[in-house]
Amino acid sequence: MRRTFFLLLIAALVGFGWWRYQHLTTPATGFTPADKPRLDPKDLQILTALDEEYTRLADAVVPSVVSITSSNPRQNNPTNALELFLFGGHNRAQRYSLGSGVIVSKEGHILTNNHVIQGMTTIAVQLTDGREVPARFIGADPSTDIAVLQINVPNLTPLLLADSENVRVGQVVFAIGNPFGLQETVTQGIISARGRRAMSDSDVEFLQTDAAVNEGNSGGPLLNLRGEIVGINTAIFSKTGGNIGISFAVPSNTARRTLESVLATGRAVRGYLGVVLQAMSPELAAQLGAADPRGAIITDVAPGSPAEAAGLQPGDIIRKIGSRPILTLPDVRSRVAELKVGAKAEIVIERGGRSISVSATIAEAPQTPPTQRGGR
Length: 376
Description:
Blueprint: H1 2-25, H2 45-61, E1 65-71, H3 81-86, E2 96-103, E3 109-113, H4 114-117, E4 122-126, E5 132-134, E6 136-141, E7 146-150, E8 172-177, E9 185-196, E10 206-209, E11 221-223, E12 229-236, E13 247-251, H5 252-265, E14 271-272, E15 275-279, H6 282-288, E16 296-301, H7 306-310, E17 317-321, E18 324-325, H8 329-338, E19 344-351, E20 354-361, E21 363-364
Antiparallel strand pairs: 1-2, 1-4, 2-3, 3-7, 4-5, 6-7, 8-9, 8-11, 9-10, 10-13, 11-12, 12-13, 14-21, 15-16, 16-17, 17-18, 17-19, 19-20
């Protein structure tokens, strides 16, 4: 009896094990996938149209963006203050540089950053169709970090430089470039702010954007929804070298001025007023009897300069240049830099509590402008 019970128990365990094996290993007898999306595109017409427009924009502009590789076999340890700022003080000294650029003429002119090609002896440009061609250095302006290159390739499609004065905070923009060597990368964001100074002594009032920009994006375009260049991506604010949503672009108007100057003269020609400035403060305003503590006060006027010819004097407080108010000392540098040589600058100053308007003819900046802080 016990033997029979034991055999029945063994048979039951074996049968249960076999059933479990069959249950776990036998494939499902049916599989019914979803036959349609949860949402009908007809119910999302605006988003669907927007998605289509974004892809059309990318398809249209990407062929005008290039990757730039520059090298200098003899330069083992290049130093670039801007590079140190861009990437949080990390030592990026190397014998080659990767960056981006954008074609701005049918003759093959390319805008990029000066720090991408500075000190390099060989510059190569790779197009989106895979062709790699040598580039010729035309000229640059280190103070705006803009450089002009040229390639000899037929049938190029340039992008238009927009008027960056019309850029508005909040508008959608696209950054295109070659981050970390990943070519033809498109990111989207908005204009976060205007008039940013990524470095305290910069002459450039940068556009700030949250579009993802990383190493290698330098020199690539920042574009509006019409595919026009509103800026040249230049710097990121980061302690690690990676994107944290704060990047800066040189406004297109600044880049255009450098381009036009380099093409016309072979070098960057900058405007010059001939004054040495000091930033205003509440204490200075109280001493001078000025109601507004903003602006810039003239501390010296260069002999023979446009400022002297216009009658500007030490102690004058610059309140406005043209239609643009002067709120800080760097504002004066920016306004003068925006003016072409020979242009008339209408300047509003405060002198002895009175508002006075004078006219100065902007000259070309000399090779050795005033050395004091704030010279322009």
